[in-house]
Amino acid sequence: MRILPTILLLSTLGPALAQPVVIGHAGLQPLDRKTLERIYTGRIVEIGGVRVTPVNLPQGNELREAFLRHYLSQDENKYTGYWTVRRYVGKGTPPPELPSSAEVVEFVSKTEGAIGYVESVEVPEGVQILLRSP
Amino acid sequence: MTDSRFMNDFRRRGRTWLIAIALMAPAIASAELEIAGFGTLGGAVSDQDLDYLGNISQDGTLNQDSVIGFQLDGRFTPAWSLTIQAKAAPSDHRENGWDPKLTWAFVSWRPTNDLLLRVGKLRVPLMFYSANSDVGITYPFARLPVEVYSVFPVTDVVGAAFSWSWLSGESDWTLEGYGGHTHTDWRFYLRDGIPPLSSAGPLYVGVDADMAGLVLTLRRRENAFAVGLHLVEASANSGPFPSDYPYVSIAPGVGYYQTLPNLPGPGIPTVDILKVDVLTLSLQIALPKDLKLIGEYAHRRMENATIGIETHAAYLGLLRTIDKWTPYVYVAGIRSDDDLLDLYESMNGTRVPDSVPFASLINASQRLGADQLLPYDQTTVALGTSYQVTPSSTLKAEWAHTRSGVASSFMDAPTDEDSGDRAVNVFSLSYNLTF
After folding, report:
1. Which long-range contacts link A98-107 to residues 24+ away (Cβ below 8 Å)?
2. What is the pLDDT of residues B416-431, one digit of tens each?
3. Can you give the pTM of this predicted structure?
4. pLDDT per residue over B144-153, tens digit each?
5. What is the SS3 string spanning chain A?
6. Residue A1 within any structural domain of the chain
7. Residue A10 lies in a domain
């Protein structure tokens, strides 16, 4: 009988909180949070001799914001500001943005060294889970 | 440098770069390309009728801080990339007008996590914000403290640079080195003219320089520390630099400094190449309550001349981020070597009696020579804030109070007056964006 009040309570909370899971091309080894942060901030470009290619979802995407918050301990402003500085000191450009999780999955599954993130409930076969937020 | 000479030089350099870019066009066309841009619309007004920093007076100006630029980033392979940046900004070699400039055009190679090599025209690591000084959104101040950021009048070289990084726990270490050739124009302001030898007003002297340097940076969480050593060898397009102005005694208590070769005296010693080294120190410390402390110091030292641009400069700023606001306060100062300031005061006050032959020429030459020493003795207190309108645009406002001591080459003193013991209030407002 407690199930109905719980459901009613949850339904008033709005959209479910995004839970990103970091995925990578088959063959990539699991990562720790620090390494992932350095990949997404351009300070690491290869792991174990494999060139890595991180991809992002578009700015404003709820899953992207959750990814930045959970794994990089940053918000969009700070992340965008970091890459703006890095671009204009001539040290690189931010990871490419793909418009949807489906395209992230397709890119990661087909591209050696690719790393991305998807909703925890959407992890398909054919990609490696590299890191999962507790 | 006259306008016609500049345009010829611009056309020659521009043709060279256009040819280089054209040769690379097939490679550029096959690369993954990103085009981005930046801009600042900045206004500044002071409470004085003299020009400060060449542009700012009580008439107000948009020519101090405004700029627009574009950057092309091309990736050929994961390891090879190309960056080209061009901008249009108020001219740095004449008083009026805007000039286009190819800021960067370099090829990068990053074979590993640790190593980045760049060759071409590139911006070198000097102070914290030197490399991105044109992009106002990337730093908190409405205007970078001129006392410190003027120590290097040029930030671009044609040459090569390396960056070697290593990670140690929470610490990121980076050693950067560079070497190359550059051209700049030094601005002198002559309070009085000596017709027909020189006119009162701004005088630009073209300078070619070879530069090399090393910078070691430690970044740990939100903190950063850097130390750099930079070596410069400069030669003036107009001929050798005077290395001293000898004093010519006419009678007990009467004499002058020989600042013109055609005045009687032992002759002005010169050097063909001015050797300068610069030590830089920078720190950024995150404090509780979202406070941040930023400080930088630069010591510019002359190796082979008594007169010149030897200075100590520093600033210390405190910022706090409150939601989209970042209010700040900073104190900055620059001071030339004591010997230079003593020489400036002596020359500036030297007068020979009218009974001395060519007295008017001699007396005018003393102030002329004093101005050419480029003395600096100035402090600024600034209070300002930036407001983040969007993640890619900011509004900034600042009030800066500047006082000169012995003299300040940043202040264009009127004829027969001095730049020392003055105060200037500058109000600045700017809109900065990237796109």
Report:
1. A98/A55, A98/A56, A98/A57, A98/A58, A99/A57, A99/A58, A100/A57, A101/A57, A101/A63, A104/A23, A104/A55, A104/A57, A105/A23, A107/A55
2. 899 999 999 999 999 9
3. 0.89
4. 999 999 998 7
5. CCHHHHHHHHHCCCCCCCCEEEEECCCCCCCCHHHHHHHHCCCCCEECCEECEECECCCCCHHHHHHHHHHCCCCHHHHHHHHHHHHHCCCCCCCCECCCHHHHHHHHHHCCCEEEEEEHHHCCCCCEEEEECC
6. no
7. no
Cβ A119 vs Cβ A20: under 8 Å? yes
Report the distance separating Cα B295 and Cα B262, nearest Å. Answer: 46
Report yes or no on A9 lying in a domain. no
Select from A46, A87, A92 the Cβ nearest to the Cβ of B36.
A87
The reply to whether A89 touches chain B by the CB within 8 Å rule is yes
Domain count, chain A: 1
Q: Which of A32, A64, A88, A112 to mutate to test the interface with B (most CBs of B within 10 A)?
A: A88
Residues 6+ apart with CB under 8 A from B292: B222, B284, B285, B286, B318, B319, B320, B321
pLDDT (0 to 100) of residue B318: 98
Tens digit of each residue's pLDDT (9 = 90 or more) over B40-85: 999 999 999 999 999 999 999 999 999 999 999 999 988 999 999 9
Tally of domains in chain B: 1
**Average pLDDT in chain B:** 91
pLDDT score recorded for residue A8: 45
For residue B220, pLDDT over 50 is answered with yes
Whether the predicted pLDDT of B107 surpasses 90: yes
d(CA B97, CA A35): 49
A107: CATH: 3.40.190.10
Question: Which residues constitute the domain of residue B279?
Answer: 31-434
In a domain, B3, yes or no: no
A88/B38 touch (CB, cutoff 8 Å), yes or no: yes
Q: Does A92 touch chain B (CB under 8 A)?
A: yes
- pLDDT one-digit tens code per residue, B112-125: 999 999 999 999 89
Let me know if residue B7 belongs to a domain: no
- Lowest-confidence region among B2-16, B96-110, B343-357: B2-16
* Mutation for testing the A interface, residue in B40, B80, B82, B83 having most A CBs under 10 Å: B83
Its domain, for residue A62, covers 17-132
Residue of chain B with shortest Cα separation from A49: B112
Residue B110 lies in a domain: yes
- Domain membership of residue B129 (yes or no) is yes
The mean pLDDT of B288-300, rounded to a whole number, is 96
> Domain with B240 in it: what CATH number?
2.40.160.10
- How many angstroms separate the most distant Cα atoms in chain A? 61
Write the ipTM: 0.84
Nearest to A90 among B122, B137, B434 (CB): B122
Rounded mean pLDDT, A93-105: 94
Confidence of residue B415 (pLDDT cuts 50, 70, 90): confident
Q: Is residue A11 part of a domain?
A: no
